[in-house]
TrEMBL record, chains A, B:
Keywords: DNA-binding, Transcription, Transcription regulation
Highest classification ranks of the organism: Bacteria, Bacillati, Bacillota, Clostridia, Lachnospirales
Tagged with keyword rRNA-binding: no
Pfam families: LacI, Peripla_BP_3
InterPro entries on file: HTH_LacI (IPR000843), LacI/GalR-like_sensor (IPR046335), Lambda_DNA-bd_dom_sf (IPR010982), Peripla_BP_I (IPR028082)
Top-level division of the source organism's lineage: Bacteria
GO MF annotations in UniProt: DNA-binding transcription factor activity; transcription cis-regulatory region binding
Protein name: LacI family DNA-binding transcriptional regulator
Nucleotidyltransferase in keyword set: no
Domain (HTH lacI-type): residue spans on this chain: 2-56
SUPFAM superfamilies (alphabetical): lambda repressor-like DNA-binding domains, Periplasmic binding protein-like I
Amino acid sequence: MATIKDVAQHAKVSVATVSRVLNNDPKVRAETKEVVERAIDELGYSPNLLGRNLRRSSTHNILVLLPTISNQFYSAIIKGIREEATLKGYNVMIGITDLDVNIEMNHIQLLENKLVDGIIFFTPQIAKSTLTRLGKVYPIVQCSEYVEGAKLSLVSIDNKQAAFDATKYLIELGHKHIGLITSKKVYTSSKLREEGFKEALTQYQLPVNEELIYYTDYTPQCGTEAAKALLTRKTPPTAIFTISDSLAIGVIRGLKECGKKVGVDIDVIGFDNTFISKFYEPTITTISQPRLEMGKKAAKLLLNKIQNIDSANETIFLPHELMIRQSTK
Amino acid sequence: MATIKDVAQHAKVSVATVSRVLNNDPKVRAETKEVVERAIDELGYSPNLLGRNLRRSSTHNILVLLPTISNQFYSAIIKGIREEATLKGYNVMIGITDLDVNIEMNHIQLLENKLVDGIIFFTPQIAKSTLTRLGKVYPIVQCSEYVEGAKLSLVSIDNKQAAFDATKYLIELGHKHIGLITSKKVYTSSKLREEGFKEALTQYQLPVNEELIYYTDYTPQCGTEAAKALLTRKTPPTAIFTISDSLAIGVIRGLKECGKKVGVDIDVIGFDNTFISKFYEPTITTISQPRLEMGKKAAKLLLNKIQNIDSANETIFLPHELMIRQSTK
DNA sequence: TTGTAAGCGTTATCAG
DNA sequence: CTGATAACGCTTACAA
């Protein structure tokens, strides 16, 4: 494998000159540049980034930490991140945490070890204080799901307002008994969505009936169970707001199994506008997040931090949108 | 940020000794080791891997190249890869190619640049000859979708046999007119599946009716169109085999829209056993691939290649399984 | 068992 | 405009 030294010898110049050509230093004579470039071609030389990285003490790699890869939701966000990053010459890598703090810490290690220049975190499990401390030393930003109160740059949507809007829409449809199916793990987003849900009820003078709130996991299976359970309440809901599309799918299935016609007998709203919500039967009313934009913004915030770790933390909430489909009416 | 030098000074030993402790060299005296470890703790030292990597000329990073992140199919495979890799002290990173040759080449660059030690390729778009040439120099293995004839290690399923089995099952159910919805891009897998499909028909003395073969893309939308188109044929199919679950979803929807009852009037088989196939309505008969195992095997093959780039290429086909559900009967 | 010092492949400073 | 050379942080002969 050819090194910069080989190129230098081949081109009869110093390694410094080769390095300059490699880095587009304007003060190389055009002819010299040509000679060097020919040598590079002839030797099939490709710079060893291990050397460069050590010298520059940076890799131009950024890491995106996802809780799982099996969630359609992230794909557009990643695309946004990549677009922005590539523009600035950064490479994007993805790591999967399985929501395991240890795996998260392993990846933080990559930052300490200088193998990546920054991290965009989705759904961090690390404690707030740790996160804040790390954020002072390393470029880290949070995206979408986040730890409330951690002092880091952050881009997300206004989850409370989004839930408020969804609930308000159901209320305006005439519903008086609205169920909520949410996560039993206390994610910031689910907490905020529950708040928004309750606030809408209160604001429209409807009672908050805890019997109609069901805590469970993010899977369709859980959605099915939850729906069936809610139907057994003294006053069963005539509409259900779920905090994810995957839950909504299960909910609809459960309702169907109980002989309910979704969108007619009972309304359902999901969250995230993942592709399946457009394709299930019925199609599912849901909240859309500006995912591409979110990715781009997150990358921008991170690049800022990489440039200047002491730059002020920013909190950005992007606008959401209620997508009305067949599952409500 | 503390370096190995700082630790050495702090512990009053040489950097060599610190390095030995870091690498668990058995010939350091226990007391010395302790002193060094205390120094490491006190300084909060964490080795800069850029230095180590340069010196060792390896990173212990492997890269998994996916065509897209929005396919549920990959998640279990990645898990398998990670399990195996972690066991051997390797880190797994994921890159997304969007099926773009340039992006693929960018990532190959990481290999030339020594930033990753090897690559596991899903759905490479690079030409066979290029791939073969690269495979001689760098550790690269193919997984699941692959370039036929490229001389690289490879783990997948026997796609032809799988399609044969699915078709045979439909034939044994009594179907005489079976449709095939497959990809119009010629992936190896779709080519092989088409072959298996035709071979089953032939072997059971059924005519191969090209009118019942529909070429399209991998999306549900395309599946819907395809299904509707097939229903307009002179002799419409009484069963449809699709080469992916996402297509199958669309197909089922299209059939429903035409008033057909899937699993009763007409049967549908998908491919990949992704989570939605278990959760759609009806649940979808499909071919299951041993994804976890596939990931583990792929990682093993890659690690072999990393150890010895000249080790013989292996081709491994793992067993598939027909999962019978409501969409056929 | 430990220390000295060379070297991995770059970039950047400084002198010319 | 170009060259010599130190330095980045680490590992590993080789010597002691």
